[in-house]
């Protein structure tokens, strides 16, 4: 396409070693919230509470992938991706999530079809087992604050692996536990909508335990690649003031090290300053730090903070000076250099403990029309992806082992508390009809994949 950014030959050669993919999640694309024995999750409760979602949408029908999975497989085949990261809905498999509840055959049958459709077009399925859809009954019993949820997650993972493990060899366990703990339990911005602040920290431990538990189960079913998908952000101080640097160090501890350290080093960072203590039992840290085959790394933007002397938190998130922003506004700056720098810092910080990295999500939302029958020229998204892939190439040249790159998202979807007001897709979706129209970024990504394979 005229005007499309191109990679320098060296960058293109560096990227040629990557496996390319794109991603979605069940609640965001499937619809069919009340069909075929599906139970209720914390997100069903959240969207049904007036005022929680900015446009009052409910994720149903949305892209309606429950009925259009074959179309999505065809779109993936057209892209030429190696793999597809999608998620499995816990409540489609174990409707209430409780011990003793039999797996739902209709739900398993659906994902059986999805896997076969992907394999039929030459795309490797990479399911994520937890992408925020905790069963409501488990939340009523304490949710991720309750250690028993780890065991119930194991029951669900075992049921899924028993049905799909003969064909699925690549798995993600837990998606973005920082968002669940910090936005879901600490600040109330996402489901389940609690405002517990630092009292929410046990949810970190239990999610990481769930990852370790799932890893063991999946390997017993023949898995070849198991990974978490951890969201990270390079934390920047607003100024050189000591208070801002202290604020940045605190948020880095909470948002980044609190998750990466136990996974990779088998220990939590020092939490004494937060007045927090994890509910650790014998054997927990060994299970959490079970070596991963790859490290799933979700990255969108850096976070700039200012130190504050009062309030429940010692920092305040502020706009990043001089940075352009995505459709989410001033707290979603576009700084691809921070992706490179964070990746290099990960290698420096964790050394040989860091397995090869897969960029398991990277993408951007920009304002786009609700209805589109002609391909949308989403040049801003193309520029964002191009610049972040250049940052990935620079990190590889600097010695970081990176083996995969995943665009969020294949489709425009339900963007959680922002409903349908934010569009991340390579493919435009009319949420009234489900009609799919590839955007210019879809063609750009397809051409990139073809170029690195040439």
UniProtKB/TrEMBL annotation:
Belongs to the glycosyl hydrolase 1 family. Its EC number is 3.2.1.21. It comes from Brevibacterium aurantiacum. The keyword Chloroplast does not apply. GO terms for molecular function: beta-glucosidase activity. The active site is at 176 (proton donor), 361 (nucleophile). One of its GO terms (biological process) is cellulose catabolic process. Substrate binds at residues 28, 131, 175, 300, 408, 415-416. Keywords: Carbohydrate metabolism, Cellulose degradation, Glycosidase, Hydrolase, Polysaccharide degradation. The keyword Phosphoprotein does not apply. It comes from the Bacteria. GO terms for cellular component: cytosol. This is Beta-glucosidase. InterPro entries: GH (IPR017853), Glyco_hydro_1 (IPR001360), Glyco_hydro_1_AS (IPR018120), Glyco_hydro_1_beta-glucosidase (IPR017736). It catalyses: Hydrolysis of terminal, non-reducing beta-D-glucosyl residues with release of beta-D-glucose. It is an enzyme of class 3 (hydrolase).
């Amino acid at each position: 396409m005229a005007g499309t950014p191109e990679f320098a030959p060296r960058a293109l050669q560096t990227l040629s070693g990557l496996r390319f993919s794109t991603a979605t999640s069940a609640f965001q694309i499937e619809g069919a919230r009340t069909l075929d024995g599906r139970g209720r999750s914390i997100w069903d409760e959240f969207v049904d509470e007036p005022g929680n979602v900015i446009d009052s949408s409910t994720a149903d029908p949305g892209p309606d992938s429950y009925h259009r999975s074959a179309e999505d497989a065809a779109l993936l085949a057209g892209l030429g991706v190696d793999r597809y990261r999608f998620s499995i809905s816990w409540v489609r498999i174990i409707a209430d999530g409780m011990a003793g509840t039999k797996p739902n055959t209709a739900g398993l049958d659906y994902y059986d079809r999805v896997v076969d459709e992907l394999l039929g077009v030459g795309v490797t399925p990479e399911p994520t087992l937890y992408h925020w859809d905790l069963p409501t009954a488990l939340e009523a019993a304490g949710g991720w604050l309750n250690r028993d949820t780890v065991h119930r997650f194991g029951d669900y993972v075992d049921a899924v692996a028993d049905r799909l493990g003969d064909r699925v060899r690549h798995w993600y366990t837990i998606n973005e536990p920082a968002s669940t703990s910090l936005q879901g339990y600490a600040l109330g911005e996402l489901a389940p909508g609690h405002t517990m602040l630092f009292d929410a920290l046990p949810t970190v431990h239990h999610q990481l335990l769930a990852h370790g538990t799932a890893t063991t189960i999946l390997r017993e079913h023949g898995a070849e690649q198991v990974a978490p998908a951890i969201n990270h952000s390079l934390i920047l101080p607003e100024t050189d003031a000591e208070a801002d640097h202290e604020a940045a160090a605190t948020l880095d501890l909470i948002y980044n090290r609190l998750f990466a350290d136990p996974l990779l080093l088998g220990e939590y960072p020092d939490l004494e300053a937060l007045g927090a203590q994890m509910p650790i039992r014998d054997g927990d840290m060994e299970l959490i730090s079970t070596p991963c085959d790859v490290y799933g790394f979700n990255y969108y933007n850096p976070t700039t903070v200012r130190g504050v002397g009062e309030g429940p938190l010692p920092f305040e998130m502020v706009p990043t000076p001089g940075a352009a922003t995505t459709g989410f506004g001033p707290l979603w700056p576009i700084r691809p250099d921070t992706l490179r720098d964070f990746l290099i810092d990960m290698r420096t910080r964790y050394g040989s403990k860091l397995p090869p990295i897969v960029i398991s999500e990277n993408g951007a939302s920009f304002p786009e029309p609700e209805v589109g029958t002609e391909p949308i020229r989403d040049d801003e998204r193309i520029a964002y992806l191009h610049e972040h892939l250049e940052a990935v190439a620079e990190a590889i040249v600097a010695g970081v082992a990176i083996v995969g790159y995943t665009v969020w998202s294949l489709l425009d979807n339900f963007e959680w508390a922002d409903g349908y007001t934010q569009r991340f897709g390579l493919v435009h979706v009319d949420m009234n009809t489900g009609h799919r129209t590839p955007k210019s970024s879809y063609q750009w990504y397809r051409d990139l994949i073809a170029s690195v394979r040439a």
